[in-house]
Amino acid sequence: MEDIVIIGFGGHAKSIADAIECGKQYHIVGYTDMQDNHCRYPYLGTDDALSDIYAGGTHKAVLGVGFIGESTLRDKLVAGAKKIGFEFPAVVDPSAIVALDAEIGQGSFVGKGAILNAEAKVGDFCIINTGAILEHECVVEDFSHVSVGSNLCGQVTVGTHSMVGSGATVVQCKYIGDHVIVGAGAVVTTDLQDCCVAVGVPAKIIKTLA
Q1: Cα torsion at 75, 78, 80, 82 (round to 10°)?
Q2: Which of 50, 33, 31, 53 is nearest to 42 (CA)?
Q3: Which CATH number describes the domain made up of 2-84?
Q4: What predicted TM-score, i.e. pTM, was given to this entire model?
Q5: Contact (Cβ atoms closer than 8 angstroms) between residue 33 and residue 45
C-alpha cells in the first residue's frame, strides 16, 4: 500500500480521506495545512513541509481543498507540489459507478454514489461530488466541480474552472464555458458563455466575471 499525503484539510478533505480508506489502495501519512485542524490524521506542517515529505519517501498527493467558485488556491497548490515531484492519482470512492470506457484525469475526485456513464470524460483535478451524475459522453474539463446531486444529461460539456452547483441540472448537449458558476438548483437549458454566473429555472446569467 503506497503512502499518500493530503494537501489542505477541511470538510472536503474528509470526504476524500474516507474514499481513500474505503478503497484500501493508499495509506494516508497525514496532511499539510496552514494550521493543525486536530483531526485523526497526523498534521505534518504547512505546505513548506512538502519537500521534506517527498524526500522522506511519500511521492503521492491528493488535493484536499474544495472548490466553490474560486480556484486560484487549488491551481497554486497543485503547481507547487508538482514542482517538487508529487504525483496526483485520481481518487474514486468504491461506491461510485464508473462506466468501463469513462475517463478520469489525474488528481480528480469522484465521490460516493456518483455515476459516470458511457464515454464520460473527467479532466484533471476535478471534483465529481456525492451523488452527481454525468450521463453518456459528458465532458468536464480541468479544475471544475460538479457539486452534490447535480445532473449533467447526455453530451454536456463543462469548461475549465467552472462549478455546477448542488442539485443543478444541465439538459442534454449544452455547453458551459470556462470560469462559470451555475447556482444550486438551477436548470440550464441554453449554452453559457465564459466567465458568468447563472441561476434559476431556467438558468439566466445574472453576473459576468472578470
Answers
A1: -140
A2: 31
A3: 3.40.50.20
A4: 0.96
A5: no
- The C-alpha cell at 192 is 453559457
CATH class held by domain 91-208: mainly beta
Nearest-Å Rg of the Cα atoms of the chain is 17
Q: How many CA atoms lie within 13 A of 19 on its CB side?
A: 27
Q: What is the pLDDT of residues 69-97, one digit of tens each?
A: 677 889 999 999 999 999 999 999 999 99
CB atoms inside a 10 Å sphere around CB 119: 18
**Residue 56 near residue 3 (C-beta atoms within 8 A):** no
Domain positions in the chain: 2-84, 91-208
pLDDT digits (tens, 9 = 90+) for 109-144: 999 999 999 999 999 999 999 999 999 999 999 999
